[in-house]
Design a protein that fits this description.
With 323 residues, the chain is mainly beta. Helices cover 13% and strands 34% of the residues.
Length: 323
């Protein structure tokens, strides 16, 4: 069944989903660790929490740590820790999968705090499927919001309630993502883009202290001078760092999209797109060279589309033309 099915099918699915409301998601589960000063200290250090009530061996756990005490960590199974999800919850997720809602994203959570947690408290909890929404359409796609309510106890006493909401959805058809955004050209960067239009890769060099810089800015960060000259780079460089973007789609780019920081032979670095290499072929230190692509032409390395040119890089071994 598709989440884009007709009204009758949609009503039938909604009734089947609603039947899971009130069914358990986890029963009589136990937190993997007792409340302890070490985890409280780690949390406070990361969050910058300096409240003295959360310091020392008798520290009160910060209220926002409520969910921490029931999290199982990265291991798929952990003896004495969080159990697998209940059969009812697994059935609900499978039903949504069968309806085409195969993607999932966490949307938000709500917490209620009923009593403090102290070191030595043994945490137990029960979780219930509180609600499954009717079909909703979002920018991510069409699907259903599933909310679970977890009651967290310390020594058998209710200490807090944690509501967690996810969206199970069928990803929206992306189709065309539109053209690549045009570069922002202003008085400070116009010289760089004029060079690109002439197939010249330019960076700035401070006239007073000689420090090279990129991107283009009005003044030198080293000495403060506003005097500079434009220098043509050779176009050769190496990959300094990189990332491979699989989602969301990048307008005007073929996915997966490879982006990186290139260290030019002259010492300056620039963020750019890396083409002509599969993601698994990318590596730090890979020799690359510049080429010029049409920003609106979807990859015309020759720049024959008549539009705005942008500098991109590809492995030096596949270089087609000079900068």
């Amino acid at each position: 069944m598709s989440p884009l099915a007709g009204p009758d099918d949609d009503d039938s699915l909604a009734l089947r989903l609603a039947a899971y409301e009130g069914r358990p998601a986890a029963v009589a589960a136990r937190g993997p660790d007792v409340v302890n000063p070490a985890m409280i200290r780690h949390w406070c250090e990361v969050m910058g929490d300096t409240d003295p009530v959360h310091q020392g061996p008798g520290a009160v756990a910060p209220a926002a740590m409520l969910q921490v005490w029931i999290m199982r960590g990265g291991a798929p199974r952990r003896s004495g820790g969080t159990p697998e999800r209940s059969a009812a919850y697994e059935e609900l997720l499978a039903l949504l999968d069968d309806a085409g809602c195969t993607a999932v994203v966490a949307t938000d959570c709500e917490q209620e705090y009923l009593r403090p947690l102290w070191p030595g408290d043994v945490i137990t909890y029960d979780a219930v499927i509180e609600s499954v929404s009717p079909r909703k359409t979002t920018r991510l796609g069409t699907g259903h919001f599933v909310t679970t309510r977890t009651e967290i106890r310390a020594g058998g006493e209710l200490a807090g309630v944690h509501r967690f909401r996810i969206l199970k959805y069928a990803p929206a058809r992306t189709g065309t993502q539109g053209p690549r955004p045009r570069p922002v050209i202003n008085r400070d960067t116009a010289g760089f883009w004029e060079g690109v239009a002439a197939r010249r890769l330019l960076f700035q060099r401070c006239t007073d202290c000689g420090t090279p810089r990129f991107p283009w800015v009005p003044g030198c960060a080293d000495c403060g001078s506003e005097r500079w000259t434009a220098v043509r780079a050779s176009g050769a460089g190496t990959v300094y760092t990189y990332t491979v973007v699989h989602h969301p789609p990048v307008p005007g780019a073929t996915m997966p999209h490879c982006a990186g920081v290139i260290e030019l032979a002259e010492g300056v670095r620039m963020a750019t797109e890396i083409r002509g290499v599969a993601p698994e072929g990318l590596r730090v230190g890979l020799p690359v060279t510049v080429e010029y692509a049409d920003a609106g032409g979807g990859g015309d390395a020759g720049g024959t589309g008549g539009g705005q040119l942008i500098p991109v890089f590809r492995p030096a071994a596949t270089r087609d033309e000079g900068p």
